[in-house]
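Archive entry: two folds, one per protein. Generate the first.
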Amino acid sequence: MIDFHLLFKYKYLLLRGTLTSLQIAFFSGIISITFGSLLAAIKIIGTRPIRFLIELYAILASGTPKLLQLLIALFLLPKLYIFATPFWVVVIALGLGSSGTIAKIIYESLKIEIEQLEAAQTLGISRRKILLNVIFPQAIQTIIPAFLKEFNILFKTSTLASIIGVSELLKTSSIIQNRTYDAFTALCTTCLIYWSVTLVIAFLISLYTKRKKLCSR
């Protein structure tokens, strides 16, 4: 049975672990969206060799284990004279690792919008008006759900941070287990927290999608 007295005793520790996991997901999501958008834009305007390199990066980023990417970042960053704390190592590794997926999503969206831009220019509409009134609003509509979905994935993937000593939610659960010898309560509570957060994010995505459909009518 779940020991609720134990949960009350360690509530602040669990809250701190949850906040750390949310911070990892948020900051790595920002890196993912920023770098992914940059890659998508370069892929659209770049030459064939550049497009090939970006596509290769996206395949490697999405086709290799996140744990492997984290370990590579842990050893590679100091060699590049980037001395980051374990928290930021995780953020950078997860952000860059998921940017390949984001780049694909944004690229496909922008590709369609560029075709709209070319069609509108033939009608005599200025490029600036098209970008401000058509391209950018549609790009933002694509980025928002992509960010929320990626945030959901990154929140669950943040458990990898415990491997290099970051006290996120799963690491906090391990600390509670070591102190109380009650693995069942600690693990069930951790599972419930992850489930609750992902459920809220899934609800926000559904709400945004419904609102978008209503606005498009």
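Generate the second and append.
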Amino acid sequence: MKRGARQTTGKKRGTTKEAPGQEAGDCQGAGECPSGARGQRAHVAAVADREQTLRAEKVRRVKAQLAQGTYRVEVREVAKAIVRHEVVRLLSEEKKPKGRGTQRRQRSSDTMHKRAQIQLTPEEQLALLRQSRTMALCTIGKDGYPHVVAMAFMVKDGCIYMTSYRKAQKVVNIRRNPKVAVMVETGEQYHELKGLMIRGRCELIEEPDEVWQIMREIRAFQGGDVDAVDPARAQKRAALKIIPEKIASWDHSKLGPGVY
């Protein structure tokens, strides 16, 4: 190279000298995005604050509409709402009838209280049985239907006794299924009703002498002539001994008129 030839500046062609305080990648001109990494972080924070404000405003608006009963949920809105769980919770509270569980428990408590009030005492149960002359006996037939008949009876040692022909349908039912129920009841109007229902198992007694003795005791319990019971009738009959397992009783008069 000849002396005096043009020397290079030491910089690559096409490069420009940056203005003082300006970094590469900064936005040019006023009103554009902030300059540098610090400005970008400030911009992101401002956007996040604006989104949070919009979310809070939407929650406030939904709550106000729910309170007024004018809000209707759309799938598109719920999908968009970041506060979806809050909306669902508020809707569930709006749709849920207030106090339903409390009212149900209160009704159940009132029913149990009335049931306890109308129960017969053991003395009252025995008095009701002694003044009754017939009792409804319910057995279960082969087809599963109840079979109910009126029977003379007596009470002895906490059990109910009655007799019937061995070939009678009720006896056939008891041989198949010993679970039975009996009931006595008095009263004309609903608020006068008084009754006793006994559920238990029935044992069949078929020895003639024992059956004849039970027939005599039933006649005495009913206030009839014991000597009129013919021993020959016991040959074809069976005695039914009902052992109580569950007892239900009621006396509506204990609550007075107008309650039922």
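Annotation attached to the second fold: Confidence is low (pLDDT under 50) at residues 7-32. Residues 36-95 form one domain.
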